[in-house]
Amino acid sequence: MRNSFFCIDAHTCGNPVRLVAGGGPLLPHAPISERREIFVRDHDRVRKALMFEPRGHDIMSGAIIYPAYREDCDFAVLFIEVSGCLPMCGAGTIGTVTAAIEEGLIKPREPGRVAIETPAGRVDVTYEEKAGYVESVRLHNVASYLHEADVDVDVPGMGRLRVDISYGGNYYAVIEPQDNWSGLDGMTASDIVGCSQKLRSALADICDPVHPDDPRIRGVHHAIWCDRPVNDTSDGRCAVFYGEKAIDRSPGGTGTSARMAQLYGKGRLTVGSRYRHESLIGTVFEGRVEAEARIGPYSGILPSIGGWARVIGHNTIFVDDRDPLAHGFQIR
Fold first, then answer.
1. Which CA distances in Å does 171 have to 81, 142, 210, 328?
2. Residue 332's pLDDT band (boundaries 50, 70, 90)?
3. DSSP state string for 280-296
4. NCBIfam families under this entry (predicted)?
């Protein structure tokens, strides 16, 4: 049997986003958080086929659009990537909105504004459109917070690191320069991947954060290595690690949200602050602390992230059961 998937390929500030516009599995009309569980249980082979080699690669990200269950949302999104079916993806949201608007997949109830039902909650997005093209997108992300500060962890080959655990739609280990890590200068992407893998493994034995409002969101699966910016107009620079060996080419939407929540929790940002966040390739997201928020017992923020994406092509992908590698592979 051969299945066909029609995809719109784009990138958000350098990071790939594959929007599945046709061929995604039909799912019951239910909250997207429940549909996510059904997808993971019954259809994860679709994610692997479209995100893993030979049709994808180590940093592949994607999304599938579904009708919204919530009446206050325009549509719902499942985020698929090499690391799994995520609760939220900022770069994925910016790329999905850009591709969906430009290609006519959705018609917002209010021009210039959409509300998206994600597994992490409702996400409001504004966008600027000119001559049929989306020039920029600002997503108003889910409530983000500093979960735990100053966690000491022994990392093989690096020694003891002090990290913060912060949530911006996914849980992140946030690392700043310190005695046993001098910063991003001189590190290759392979160095960052290796250090991140060791850090995540070490944290798994001592730290398992659970979201106060949704116990299905738990665990530190991402790391964000933070340093001084290269560009004088930026406030910080980062490398976001996810999956098995992926480094985000953008500054990371949930990563920038988690970074701002960490800085806010430590008194280094306030409501109204702007934070221009630079990626390893020099692209920038403009973050803003829009308001305070409560997440269970925690004090946090409502962040927004501004960025841009570009559509780079249409892609019809075949997944043929006769192919021994039909459902993808990863090289560890």
1. 16, 13, 9, 26
2. confident
3. TTS-EEEEEEEEEEEET
4. PRK13971.1
Q: Which of 13, 85, 89, 238 is catalytic?
A: 89
Amino acid (one-letter) located at 133: Y
DSSP state letter for 43: -
User: Under 8 Å CB-to-CB from 25, ≥6 apart: which residues?
Assistant: 39, 42, 43, 46
Percent of the chain exceeding pLDDT 90 equals 95
Judged against a pLDDT cut of 90, whether residue 300 lies above it is answered with: yes
DSSP-assigned beta bridge partners for residue 126: 113, 138
Q: State the pLDDT at residue 326.
A: 93
Instruction: Tell me what pLDDT residue 331 has.
Output: 86
Of 207, 211, 262, 217, nearest to 236 (Cα)? Answer: 262
* Beta-strand relationship, 171-175 and 220-227: parallel
Distance of CA 205 to the CA centre of its chain: 24
- To the query of whether residue 195 is one of the catalytic residues in this protein, the response is no
> Burial code of 181-197, b = ≥16 C-beta within 10 A, e = fewer?
beebeebeeeebbebbe
CA 76, 327, 54: angle at the middle one, nearest 5? 100
Q: State which H helix or E strand residue 118 sits in.
A: strand 113-118
Q: Given this model, what pLDDT does residue 277 score?
A: 98
CA 231 vs. chain centroid, Å, equals 23
